[in-house]
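Q: How would the structure tokens look for this protein?
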Amino acid sequence: VFAGVGNIIKNEVLYRVRLHPETLVKDIPGRTVTEMMKEARKYSFEFLEQKKAGTLKKHWEAYTKKMCKRCDLPFNKKYIGKTKRRTYYCENCQVYYYS
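A: Here is the predicted structure in token form.
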């Protein structure tokens, strides 16, 4: 779903918009694509400011986390994509769209 934004941003944005990381691009509803693009831009600026301040890890909601703060359920950790990047997600609140 996310090429070029970096693994941390990918994990955080997908969590924020409640999108399952294995959803194929063709199956993502238009409104979710729009929300994801807005959130990616917003979070990228937050990421930069937090990194400059040295507080980046403190603000992560998904990346490297063990539990979903929304559902209080364990995160799944999976190596996804051609490059097998670490991905953290909640099976309960991140929707997997498929056709």
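The radius of gyration is 13 Å.

The chain has a mean pLDDT of 95.

Upvote if useful.
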